[in-house]
Amino acid sequence: MALLDVEDLSVTFRQRGKRTVRAVDGVSFSVDAGEVVGLVGESGCGKSVTSLALMGLLPRQPGIAVEGRADFDGTDLLRVDRRTMRDIRGRDVAMIFQDPLSSLNPVIPIGRQVTEVLARHRGLSGDAARKEAAELLDRVGIPDPNRRLKEYPHQLSGGMRQRALIAIAVACRPRLLIADEPTTALDVTIQAQILELLKDLVRDSGTALVMITHDLGVVAGMCDTVNVLYAGRVVETARRKPLFAEPRHPYTVGLLGSIPRLDAGRGERLSPIRGSVRDVLPWADGCAFAPRCDRQVDACLGQPPQLALTHTDRTYRCVNPVPPAGSPAPASPTAAEPAAEGIVPAQATAAEDAPAAVEDAPAPAEDAPAPVAERATPPAPREEESA
Amino acid sequence: MVGPMTITERARKKAEKLDRLGELSAARDEERGVSLWQEAFRRLRRNPAAIVGTVVLGLFLLVAIVGPFFVPYAPTDTIGIREGLVKSGQGIIPGPSGDHWFGFDHQGRDEFSRLVVGARQTLLVGVVSTLIGLAIGALVGGVAGAAAGLGGRWGRWIDTALMRVVDMMLALPSLLLAVSIAALLGASLTTVMIAVGVVSVPVFARLLRGSMIAQANSDYVLAATSLGVRRSKIAIGHVLPNSLAPVIVQATLTLATAIIEAAALSFLGLGNPDTAIPEWGVMLADAQPYLGIRPALAIYPAVAIIITALGFTLLGEAMREALDPKLRK
């Protein structure tokens, strides 16, 4: 059984006088120890709400409803009482946030922010805690850790701050780490270093990592399994290589198509996904992506598309998916017959066997500046306004 | 433990490269552990308003502390009447002279000595009443802010209850409130301090509460929560230190108004009944009947009050600027 099994997670925001927003709508995924699972999607698709729900960090208010299951090694993270959850947080499950500056307390030296967690969960204090904190900073690649312990967040560079934040998150050797866009606030060279650090930590400690990102470059460099989210639902799940080699859901195809590529010819234009995340259809009325989709057919409307299972590793939620590479002529966009059964396992294997072609397509060299998928799409509104 | 070692080495190599880059591109703070407060203090030193305010207050402090030991005459000595120089009934109150720099008051006491000795009383009332207001206000505001920001549904209830009380206090005009308290408790020095202190409670409470609620929504609080840190510890260790800046500024500004309010209470006859100890507000009240004969008797204490209040205000404003998070680099 996987370390974390999320089943049918839904988060609903109800506010008087406003439309009910289902930010996360039946998301399921699982993470094994030592595995890196990506949650990918544009702003407002429910990635961050998913992570906050798993951590129990959504405010407990009457208007916010969290449903489903999140089985973490036998404990349902969505159902445990607050006291237990506080013990789990930081010790078994830890989170890395997007903005390292605002996530560190500006008036407290770094050292005390590290030792605070050590005191809380590992009972360390005094010199033992300081020594351990220095070792942690050293482990995440902060030079001269004893000096840094006395410094304040504003004295550290952006990359150093994120390293410090990672040190705090891994201080108690959590079994699950949730990283919510850990590199978005950093510039590209630092991004690569931070990703490398996270990869090393996962490999050496066997920690499971949930990587939340809008950046397909990060996904290509990090993730073993990728879940593509759209309007609160998983629209495609695949291992990394098959996903990049032959994306099946039109949204995934659109995301991949909108990445600026260094090897593109001069004058070649980016192909953004038309419309914005505002143009969604409620899932109850059909496929939420249909209004923006090039492959829309009649069957897209009326009822929500089911997750189609091709083989064990791969699912997508589309009635008219993009045909796999190498298949005969693309299905006519008006064909009502879903092409879900179109995959022959042999083809998938073939794709896996040709990693060069796969890697070259969207994945940047790991240390090179990672292309940011969102730059190509129009700025999307926040989720409160959408969905 | 082969794994961590390799990470360490790899990471360190990268970090060193990064650091060298960093040193080339940007001048980093060389001092270790420069806290926000130290930085604010550095900014304060460069602000002329802060310097003027500090100098004024420094003089005031000096006078208040050592002044009474050096005054030429005892503040209660009715020397002018004894020597036949002052005849208030006939409207004779001599002005400044070589022996009596500011002249005499209506009872023939040396005005300069009274002014100097009065500084101590004024400072005492200002500081103690501000501390009273700060202590109660910070307690109420801190509890309400922590409850509202971190406490969930019960917390919001506590916050609402506390704030309604504070709102009621805010609704009353401050001087009226002070007069009522002073009248209720009977005129004494302690009464003045309590009355003036209580008047500033709602301001401190509201300020700290608002500041804490704003801080409770910040990312570092979410981050600390995500690490399982207890809420009480988050409130005291994380939220409170970040919320104090506006309160400290307000305390400096409140010192100014406290001095004025204490003077007003004394003027209204609700101050220290022991008139042996001069106080600027009392001196102002005493000068009232003689405004037509010797207006300077009112002007001396008035100017002293104004300069002191101005000193505190200048320093307070400068501190507000120095502690403003928007000006932080």
From TrEMBL, chain A:
| InterPro entries linked to this entry | AAA+_ATPase (IPR003593), ABC_Ni/Peptide_Import (IPR050388), ABC_transporter-like_ATP-bd (IPR003439), ABC_transporter-like_CS (IPR017871), Oligopep_ABC_C (IPR013563), P-loop_NTPase (IPR027417)
Biased composition (Low complexity) is annotated at 332-377
Q: Where is the composition biased (Pro residues)?
A: 321-331
UniProt keywords (A-Z) are: ATP-binding, Cell membrane, Membrane, Nucleotide-binding, Transport
The GO terms this record gives for MF are:
ATP binding
What does the UniProt entry say about where the protein is found? Cell membrane
Q: Where do the ABC transporter domain residues begin and end?
A: 4-256
Where are the stretches annotated Disordered? Answer: 320-387
Principal subcellular localisation of the protein: membrane
Family, according to the entry, reads as follows: Belongs to the ABC transporter superfamily.
State what protein this is by name.
Dipeptide/oligopeptide/nickel ABC transporter ATP-binding protein
Membrane topology, as annotated = Peripheral membrane protein
Q: What is the phylogenetic placement of the source species in the record?
A: Bacteria, Bacillati, Actinomycetota, Actinomycetes, Micromonosporales
- In the UniProt record, the signal sequence range is none
According to its UniProt entry, this protein's organism is Plantactinospora endophytica
